[in-house]
Amino acid sequence: MKLAPVDYVILALYFAFVLGIGWRLRKGVSSSGDFLLSGRSVPVWITSLAFIAANLGAVELIGMAASGAKYGIMTAHFYWLGAIPAMLFMGIFMMPFYYGSKARSVPEYLKLRFDEKTRAFNAISFAVMTIFSSGISMYALGLLLHLVLGWSFDVSVLASAAIVLAYTFLGGLTSAIYNEVLQFLLIVMGFAPLAILAVNKAGGWQGMVSRLPPNMTHAWRYMGSPTENPMGVEIFGMVAGLGFVLSFGYWCTNFLVVQRAMAADSMSAARRTPLIGTIPKMFLPFIVIMPGIAALVLSKMNLGYDFPLKATGGPDYDQALTTLMAQFYPAGLLGVGMTGLMASFMSGMAGNVTAFNTVFTYDIYQSYIRPGAPDHHYLTVGRVTTVAGVLLSIAAAYLATRYNNIMDLLQLVFGCVNAPLFATFLLGMFWKRTTAHGAFAGLTLGTAAAVLTLSSTTAEGKGGWIANLYTFPSQMAQNFWIAIIAFTTCLVISVAVSMVTKPRPDKEMEGLVYGLTKVPHDATAKWYQRPAPLTVVVIIMLVILNFWFR
Amino acid sequence: MDLRVPSGWFFTLVGLILLAMGVFKPETRATLTTANVNLYSGACMLVFGLFMLLLAWRAARSGE
Q: Is the ipTM value over 0.85, yes or no?
């Protein structure tokens, strides 16, 4: 695939706009709160789109199309069963405590509710995770651009990192959030035509259904046994593992997304951020997953489109999206599509970097290295950490080029970190008897249980370094079950230890726990500005979608 | 800053570029489609961009 001059013009225009937005917003930064938290002043439609854009990185965009080609419409469960119910729960039940507690980050909430050791554990593991995930995403992008366009790996990695650094350094979180919205719009505009063209060519949804095995076009019907569906998962593992533990763990406790909602200008706006975000999120599968399924169909239709293969043989699912672009996009729109891909990478990376600098500055530096300094000192630290975060991500990207397998492993381990954390938050927010010692014991042992399960079971030849007690039918099933085990361990241990340790007095937990917090009722607001009616509308739409593709 | 202004301008400009491609170079086609993809998507982006600018303009006027 080769880009024409017009494509480079569009790419350059996009770079000019993101840098311009950063430049315009630089004047709004005068305190560490402005830089790291947006001064809690961003309008709700912007936080809502940023909330879903921060998660829509290049790895996710390429990965969703790849999974579409590999697993079919079941991939949509990541959205319709996983993300959306979790986002609703977060907005309705959890946001009042996050926003109301005045905590500046997720680890800081843990400190207010529990104690220092729980915060330290979460802050450090989160900081390490963000660096590696942004490095892995950078590596994936560099590799893809090299493969597809023949661009130099070094140039594309360093240039895109430099642009992200420039606009986050200038305007802080506000700049990252504003750009995420532009990036989100561009991703939609850049990939929606591809979905339309590819699905049309494949004969529409009905044509795709008639050309594929039925278990690729039904999301629910073949979930009775793992041997019947392409994901190799049974219904309990899917609903409990993905639908409950993994999704709620990610969307409700990952500071990367929670930070976007916390930047909203009021409690009501913070609660509506994930709720409004669910509406575009619900329709994303049509843009990001459908092209993957269509690619598979097109490769069977003798149109001259062959499914991309790896050098070692076997289908290369990760290239489904880009090979389709080469087939359907003429010079011009191709530039928009490639720019959309770059935009997804940048929004993912900026999301990681802005979450990293906040957690490092407030939860590590201000808490353990140098407390009590004047605010402008922390603003400087925030800026320096932004540079350091980008440099560390670049280092992680180069590490990934050297030790590919270690990165695979790290991604698996990171998958285990959020699962027990959700149990800690659930207990912390809704059961005031939970004690600090209980939470810490549950969190550490839950994480240990996840790693232990990973090292004593195998799936598709991975895991099982200590022993092989059980072989899962697929890696998906293994992931989901590890999450279920980690969550349950954390829950049981936290409850058990809490029962035998001294509870905190109620007075200290006002604003932090259900029952001791005044949840605001916006009875005077219009119905679509209130959380409950909004949720009902979303649930109805969700049920219709699930039923339609059952 | 009203974010609708820069995003409106961005999509207006990209829309115009694609529209120009669609009108002046209609023979630019991809392998698997015969449609004038640039023309249609350019028109959509232009409309979207102008709509954002309109919203921003109305908000600015009522704010004064």
A: yes
